[in-house]
Amino acid sequence: MLKYFATFEVFFEENLSKLFLHFKSYSLTPDIYLIDWIFTLYSKSLPLDLACRVWDVFCRDGEEFLFRTGLGILRLYEDILLQMDFIHIAQFLTKLPEDITSEKLFSCIAAIQMQNSTKKWAQVFASVMKDIKEGDKNSSPALKS
Fold first, then answer.
1. Which of 5, 40, 94, 117 could bridge 142 with an S-S bond, Cβ 3.0-4.6 Å?
2. What is the pLDDT of residues 74-127, one digit of tens each?
3. How many CB atoms lie within 10 A of CB 60?
4. Where are the beta strands (DSSP E) in 4-126?
């Protein structure tokens, strides 16, 4: 999972740099919120009807969409999250507001670019895998033990 978190952070920084820096200032790493989202396929944090829509697209598009959804959620609530501290962010991301609409969420997901420079998700993930095999654990705070 640490390799996925590191890859997620690459796209987090690329798409939402201001929020990324805010999270970094609190040492808030993706493992704090993302593991719950991914392991439950968003069924714990999103209303069930929205989670079902995420599952449908995940079945069609693959694992990349799960991480794109996570970035879409962060984009949707970026303004709110920028005003919160560590504890409030962690609590907020554990159980998202029930009034979230599919239109707003999926438009935020669509706005997420899953391409870093000229590399797509799979290429960035492969690069992270290679870096880890070579012992380079400096690329992501989530990888530091």
1. 5
2. 999 999 999 999 999 999 998 899 999 999 999 999 999 887 767 787 777 778
3. 8
4. 115-116, 119-120
d(CA 140, CA 128): 9
Q: Which residues pair with 115 in a beta bridge?
A: 120
> Rounded to the nearest 5°, which phi and psi values hold at 119?
-100, 140
Query: Is 61 inside any structural domain?
Result: yes
For 63, residues 6+ apart whose C-beta sits below 8 A from its C-beta are none
At residue 65 the predicted structure's pLDDT band, cuts being 50, 70 and 90, is: very high
In angstroms, rounded to a whole number, what is the distance separating the alpha carbons of residues 73 and 12? Answer: 11
Classify residue 145: in a domain, yes or no: no
Domain that holds residue 1: 1-132
Q: What's the total number of domains in the chain?
A: 1
